[in-house]
Each structure stands twice: as structure tokens, then as C-alpha cells.
Design a protein that fits this description.
The protein has 426 residues and is mostly helical. It is built from 17 helices and no strands. Helix 1 packs across helix 7, helix 3 packs parallel to helix 5 and helix 7 runs antiparallel to helix 12.
């Protein structure tokens, strides 16, 4: 990061900010759920369907995004994404028609993944070398957190000074569209129109020749799919259930729980991104770092279940869990080199990995909801959360398996490289 020139730094910021915006505006319900219900005249079921429209479309678009990123320039895809978000967000600001809202959220899901996700990952990976990938990806995650924090407080300010929720929500969206337009302008200026070096041109040509079968035959793709599924599930389900666990089981106040949620969502994300990325780059074998983190997660979740009567200790453990989960989420893509996934394979590989590894994000919540409803009906909500935590522990075990396989693959790749060097010298 320290060797970045100004232009490279701007590319890094634009890529990170674009993802931050794409993962904030379609998910405003996390912060303004009640206001959205009032302004848009929706009930809980309709809000849920609208959320599903984004998540299901996003999941289906991961392979499409991999294909697009292997065929079109990062500049074209990022600019298309930003332009689409400007138009969709302005449209969002001036409609309350439910069919229109569903169409907007389906399109948010499409442009947030198909024209962005794999292009973003490819772009960030190409900005660095094998030695600083974790720092790069971790810093990008932290930068995304900073952008979302600033936008979040700006949105709160707009809602706070508005005469009515209707006016506030409209101006909130217009502010979001305006910020997106600024980054579109910056993208048009700073993102390179073509490949800047012969090496980049070669990578682009190889990427265009790379087939889905080439990706599916790469062992590293499947190893990372296993490891990332474990890490992402820990992060996603932890975010979804640890805050409500502190209210329903530890019996702390909702306001204190919200405060802890803010700490997890913003402060810890920032620290985990910058600090975690730097630390992970100090490991010769990143699989070993993930092995340590997955093992710590298992111990921590067992600790949460055993200390629910010792509230301060239990809360402390949940914050440790949040930190580890965010370190894993911010750095797992940095392991592609050590998994033996070539740079030219990044677009298609990230499309395949994301499509499979992120499936628990929409598959598990209904299962977990049913578990909690059954436990609540039985008068023992803590048992329901304990069952959820045991399922998360099972995904941690999956992550351990993936980490061990990653370490072995890295060792094998390094041995083959050393052997090749010896043969060349000899």
C-alpha cells in the first residue's frame, strides 16, 4: 500500500467505494426499516420479498459476473455499474409502486454483482503482488467500511432534518445517487481505458481464452470454495444473530445491543480490515492463519454458550468473534495465489466460488428462523441460539478442512517452483 502512486490509489478507492455503495443503497432496510415501511407503504411480507429480490438475483448473477469480467475491461464494468446505480436510485426516489420497487431491487442485484463483483476482485488483485494481497484486500474492506460509515451518518442526518419521512427518504436516495455520480465521474477519469502493460495485455488475452472447464478442473477453486463458505457463513450468520442473542438471552437493553452492533459493523470492520490484512501477509502459509482463526471461532462460540450468565464476559467474546469473522471476510480472497489460481483465471474463478460459497446466506436464515420460533414456543429461546451456534461451529470445522487443504496445496506449489528453479539452474 505504501508504494502506491496517486493514480493507483485513486483506482483502489474507486473500486472499494463502488462496492461500498452497491452493498449499502439496496440494503437501507438494515437502518431505515420502519421508515421505509411508512414511506413506501409496505408490510413486513412485502419488505421481505423485496429483500429476497436482491439476494436471489445477486446469487444467480455471480457466474454471469465472472464471465463479464473475463471478457470486458474493468473500467467499462465499473462505469456501467455506477451509471446504473445512479439511474436506479433516482428512480427509487420517485416511486412507491411496489412492482416498480421489485424491478429496481432485481436490477440492483444484477448490477451489484454481474457487472461489479468479479471485476472488483480482479481489479484489487491486480493492484498488488503475491506478497501484499492480504493487506490490499483487508484495506479495501476497511475502506468500504469507512465509505459506508460516512454515507450512513449522512443519510441519518438527512432523515433527521427533513420535515417528513417521505421527504427525508427521497432526499436520502438523491444524496446517495449524487455520491454515486461523483464516483462515476472519478472512474471515467482515473480507471485506465485499456491494458497499461504488455503483461496486463497477456493476462487479458489468457483470461479471454480461459474456459469454465479450466476453472472447474483447478483444485484451488474447490479448496477456496470450502474455506470461504465456512468463513462467510461465520461472518454473515454472526452479524445476523449475535446482536439479537444479546437481547433475547443476555437480556441487555436494545439500545446497548444496537451500540454493540455499531461497534461490530463499523469500528471492528475498520480495525479488522487494516490490521488483519497486515498480519495475514506475515504468514508464509495463509492456510495456517485461517486454521488458527477457525479454531478460535469454535472455542469462542463454545464460550458464548457457556458464559451466558456472565454477561460482560459473554459480550466480550461476541466482540472477539466479530473481529475474527471480519478478518477472515476481508482477507479470504487474498489466498488465490497460494491456492494456485492464476491471475488470468480470477474473473471466472471468483464467479464460481462466490456462487457456491455464498449460498448459505439465503439458505440458512429460514432454517434458523424456524429453530428460534420452535425454541421460543417451548419457552427456551437460549436452546434455539445454541443450536444455531452449533451449526456455525460445523461450518467452522468445514473451514478448518479447507485451511488444511490450502496449506498443503501451497506447500506443494512452492515445492514444484523450487524444483523447477533447481532444474533451470542445473
Amino acid at each position: 500500500m505504501g508504494k502506491f502512486g496517486f493514480r493507483k490509489l485513486m483506482i483502489f478507492i474507486i473500486l472499494s467505494a463502488t462496492v461500498a455503495i452497491a452493498y449499502q443503497i439496496p440494503y437501507l432496510r438494515y437502518t431505515f426499516y420502519d421508515q421505509m415501511m411508512e414511506v413506501l407503504k409496505l408490510n413486513n411480507t412485502q419488505m421481505g420479498i423485496m429483500a429476497t429480490a436482491v439476494s436471489l438475483t445477486s446469487t444467480l448473477c455471480y457466474p454471469i459476473g465472472g464471465f463479464f469480467a473475463s471478457r470486458f475491461s474493468i473500467r467499462s464494468l465499473i462505469c456501467i455499474t455506477l451509471a446504473a446505480f445512479v439511474g436506479l436510485t433516482v428512480w427509487y426516489a420517485f416511486t412507491t409502486n411496489y412492482i416498480m420497487l421489485l424491478i429496481i431491487h432485481v436490477l440492483y442485484g444484477f448490477f451489484g454483482i454481474a457487472t461489479l463483483w468479479s471485476a472488483y476482485l480482479s481489479g484489487i488483485r491486480k493492484l498488488g503482488t503475491q506478497d501484499n494481497q492480504s493487506t490490499l484486500f483487508g484495506s479495501s474492506e476497511a475502506t468500504r467500511g469507512i465509505v459506508q460509515t460516512v454515507l450512513g451518518f449522512a443519510f441519518l442526518g438527512v432523515m433527521g432534518i427533513s420535515l417528513t419521512p417521505q421527504i427525508g427518504f427521497r432526499w436520502l436516495l438523491l444524496v446517495g445517487a449524487g455520491v454515486t455520480a461523483v464516483f462515476l465521474f472519478l472512474a471515467l477519469i482515473y480507471l485506465p481505458k485499456g491494458q497499461s502493460t504488455d503483461e496486463d495485455t497477456s493476462v487479458q488475452e489468457q483470461s479471454e481464452k480461459c474456459s469454465w472447464m479450466d476453472v472447474l478442473k483447478n483444485k484451488g477453486v474447490w479448496i477456496l470454495t470450502i474455506m470461504i463458505m465456512g468463513a462467510y457463513t461465520i461472518w454473515s450468520m454472526g452479524n445476523g444473530y449475535l446482536t439479537t442473542y444479546t437481547v433475547q438471552v443476555l437480556n441487555i437493553s436494545p439500545s446497548l445491543a444496537s451500540t454493540l452492533g455499531i461497534v461490530r459493523s463499523y469500528i471492528i470492520v475498520f480495525l479488522a480490515g487494516f490490521l488483519g490484512g497486515w498480519v495475514l501477509d506475515r504468514f508464509t502459509f495463509k492456510g495456517k492463519a485461517f486454521l488458527i482463526m477457525f479454531s478460535t471461532v469454535i472455542i469462542a462460540y463454545l464460550g458464548v454458550m457457556l458464559t451466558n450468565k456472565l454477561i460482560p464476559i459473554c459480550i466480550g467474546i461476541t466482540l472477539v468473534l466479530a473481529f475474527i469473522a471480519n478478518v477472515m471476510k476481508s482477507t479470504y480472497w487474498s489466498t488465490m495465489d497460494q491456492a494456485g489460481i492464476p491471475v488470468y483465471m480470477t474473473p471466472l474463478a471468483t464467479g464460481v466460488i462466490s456462487f457456491i460459497a455464498f449460498m448459505p446466506d439465503f439458505a440458512l436464515p429460514p432454517i434458523f428462523g424456524a429453530i428460534l420460533d420452535k425454541a421460543a414456543a417451548a419457552g427456551n429461546i437460549a436452546s434455539g441460539f445454541n443450536m444455531i451456534f452449533l451449526i456455525i461451529i460445523a461450518f467452522s470445522v468445514m473451514g478448518i478442512v479447507g485451511s488444511i487443504l490450502l496449506t498443503r496445496r501451497t506447500q506443494k506449489i512452492n515445492s514444484e517452483k523450487e524444483l523447477l528453479v533447481e532444474e533451470t539452474v542445473g
